[in-house]
Structures are given as structure tokens and as C-alpha cells.
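task queued by scheduler; priority normal; single chain, no ligands, no partner chains; default sampling; output format set to C-alpha cells
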Amino acid sequence: MSNTPYTLACQSQGRVQHGSILSGNLRPTRVTSQWKSTLYTFGALKGFGFSPFGIDERGVQLAGDPSVGLGTGGDGDPVIGALYGLLEQLSPLVLQKQAEGKIATVIMEGSAQRSGRGRIGDYTVNMIRASGPDGTTDPVSRVAAMFLQTGPDEFIVLGAGDMQVSFTTDRPGPPIVGIESIDEQMVKDGAMQPGRRLNGDENGQGQSLRLVSSDAGEAKVYRVRLYRYR
């Protein structure tokens, strides 16, 4: 598998052609990186394009790799198509947050990585794998979540895979972070439409966000608001 990110430094060099999902007038600059996800490319590398190889071949078995949206291969894989479609609709926001430096992705790869950690704004993101639809947790699955900061304490979160996310901080002020609210956002025609507000067991009593592997297929992201207390 190979990624083709287009960095902000290339922005004035021409129009993106092969492998581009996000809009923009860019000239391709190729960076090969094995087994990185689309969310990692856009959220951590600030890339503008992603070119995976071999996803259209029948019989290719890439199970346990939801971070790149892959199922079992075959023409028109619906899972990776859903993830790409979701990113395409969110591309104006992704591009804006790349330019502002308010985007991050946390990714977990392989059984040796039991947790993931990253920073967005004043907060540290802590991520662990969670159980899938069958009730079991795959210890070797690749999972990823992208965070787009839309306010001092507010984020849009989209994920690929089954995971649980919590937040901490090491910045001055009250030391404990809680989740004020989690609202589902259904992405349609490039706009986010409010869905359910998650409470109680659905948000770990105000302590965690649960992302599931079906979110991309349902064009679902989450608006998360945090607060701090002692």
C-alpha cells in the first residue's frame, strides 16, 4: 500500500491529479509509506491525497484493517468507498483545519500497540481498541480517529474501526477533563445534520467517546464538547 500526500508547501504548484480526494490546486509530491491510513495521511501528515494499491483485486484478504476502510477486496469495496465519500464531503473543513493547524489523527497499529495518544488543542487524546459487532476485541486491528478542532473545547471526530476515546490535559487550569456533550452528526450533501445526543452508558458517564466501525458507512461523525473541573 502506498500513500500520496500533497503537502501545503505544494499548494501553488498546479492541480492535483491521481490519488486526490480533497480539492485544491496542487502538484503531486509522492511519499511512500506502508500501511498508513487515509485518516493518518490527512490528519497527521496534512496530506491532500491518498493512493492505496490493490484494493480492487478479488480475493485480497485484508481483514482487521479498518483504519484504511478495507474489507475483503473486490470491485467497489463499499467500506473504503464510504470512508472516501465521507472525507470528500468534509474536505472544505479538513482543508481549513489543516491550514489552521487544528487537525490531528491518532492511529493504532498491531498487537504491540495497546493504546494510542495524540494532542489536539489543549487536550491529550487517549485511545484504546473496543469490542466490535460480535462483542470481541481484535487486539491486532488497525484503528484510527481524526480530530478537527472547531472551538477551544469543541471537536468534530470521525473514525475508522472500533475504539474508545477519552481526554486529559496537562495545561494550566482545572486538571480533570469531562465530556459536556456528544452529538451525532449525519453528513449529507456536504452539511452536518444533528442526530442523537449520547448520554449515560453511551458516553461512559461523561468520560469517553465510543467510535464504531459502521460510522463511515452511515456517514456519521461526532461533535464533542469538553470541560474541565477539579
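post-processing summary
- The beta strands are 103-108, 116-120, 123-129, 143-151, 154-160, 163-168, 176-188, 191-198, 209-211, 220-229.
- The first strand starts at residue 103 and ends at 108.
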